[in-house]
Amino acid sequence: MSAAESQAPSQSLSPDAQRVARPALVFSFFNALNWQIALGTPMVLLVEGLGGDAFQVGLCFAFVYLMTPIQVLSTSLLPRYGFKRMMLSGWGLRALFLLPCIALAYLGRDGHAAPWMRWVMIGSVFGFTFCRSLGSSAWLPWLYKLLPESARGRYFASEQMVSSIAGVAVLVLCAILFKTLPRFEAFMIEYAVAFVGAALSYLALQRMADTEKPPAISLREVVRAAPGIFLRASRYRAFLWAACWFGFATTAIPPFCIYFLRVEAHISPGDVVLFTTMQYTGVMLMAWLVRGELDRRGPRPFFFAATIVYAAVALFWLALLVFRFDASGYLPFVFLAIGLGYTLWAATYPSHLPSIVPEDDNRPLVLAIYSASTAFCSGLGSVLWGLVLKTGGATPGMDLGWFLVFFGFVFGSMGVLVLLLRRFEYPAGRREPIQLGNVLLQPQRAFGFFINLVDTSLAREDGDRRPLGR
To answer: What share of the chain is helix, strand, coil (3-state, %, to 5)?
Structure first.
């Protein structure tokens, strides 16, 4: 597919593609109302409001990344149950785990937060992300089966826009609710909105046509081939390790900044949500700016820019923690910068990976290993840093000394990554970037996409197994 085909806004979809795209876009809109609350800032604020410590906040935030192995395993169920049934089952079950959150918000209205409530909340987020992983194994390969290649670029551009509008709108709604209602009453309404979004997205999925089931795959062969691909010296391995380090260092920044602003700076939930809205504004702004320049300049300057932006964010927080100045006027721009830095990396690597991964039978598996490794490291960072950032007292708080160390680690990591990125080779010539849909708003979308590519590499049409890792 040419760049013109994938980006031309005037290209119209065929009637068949429109029949697929319409319910899929409706699903994406209502799904954004759902995940932005269930996995985003409102979830972090509810865990904090129930008395959760930094470890519990980091754990809940990390679940969506740590569930990547479940998504890998669930691909083996696709040949048996098919795309539509897997998607409907996962999305239907995950909506049920929003109901305990509504009940917890109701029980928390009197200011009482028993320890069991926090564990119920953690269990609900775990169940939500577990079921989401089961369904996500089917979504993108299902779309690729339904949409003709010529329509995919336009569809994913439309999906990005629809999800962006819905995601920012629901954050603004959350901020208004926090400003006008008692905190736990606002949580009740927000999670009710998330549940309605889940129900409507489920109905949209039911309107989509099913396709034939994929051929059987062998996860044993994936496990057998993975170590060789991960450890073999190559340009891919060097970039993989750098990406894992980048994810480990940066993914934990938003949840722990939000937690600090609540338990240490005592900033209102409404203002915190508005800061997050600025973060997503940065995501959309940089996505628009990068799109036209990436082909012309290549990936190198954008990787460098991502590390520099995150280094600047870390330097700001180091200065704030050391000098304790009034930062209220700067925080919106800091969260904007977090969105900019994330997008500089996330919008660039789908264009860089095709240039360092050979286009052969093993390419889908290599990309899947990239996604699984970076996802795991991203989630691991939130969990491990949460363990050291939590305080031991009865009142929730954050160990400010370790928070200072955390941002020192981020700053130092960005410096090391700059040195590593300078040594990498960046092959000349344009290569078609991998279409990832609304990955900029949902980083887990990229992990799921790459994992789901594996099924195309493990079985021939005649059912014979392919040798891997050779």
So the answer is: 75, 0, 20
CA 45/CA 174 separation, integer angstroms:
11
Nearest C-alpha neighbor of 52 from the set 385, 384, 381, 396: 396
Q: pTM, whole model, 2 decimals?
A: 0.88
Show me where the domains of the chain are located.
19-456
Q: Are 36 and 104 in contact (CB under 8 A)?
A: no
Cα dist from 312 to 107, 244, 248, 281, 304, whole Å: 41, 20, 17, 18, 12
Nearest to 450 by CA among 165, 226, 155: 226
Query: pLDDT tens digit string along 391-438?
Result: 877 788 899 999 999 999 999 999 999 999 988 877 766 555 565 554
In the predicted structure, residue 234 carries a pLDDT above the cut 90? no
Q: Rounded distance, CA 186 to CA 422, Å?
A: 48
pLDDT in tens, 153-201: 778 778 878 888 898 999 999 999 999 999 999 999 999 999 999 999 9
- What are the tokens at 417? 């990554």
Write phi, then psi, for 459 (nearest 5 degrees).
-145, 130
Q: Are 72 and 451 in contact (CB under 8 A)?
A: yes
List the CATH code of the domain at 19-456: 1.20.1250.20
Q: What does the pLDDT read at residue 192?
A: 97
Q: Tell me the backbone φ, ψ of residue 310, rounded to 5 degrees.
A: -65, -35
Helices (H) and strands (E) in the chain, counts: 21, 0
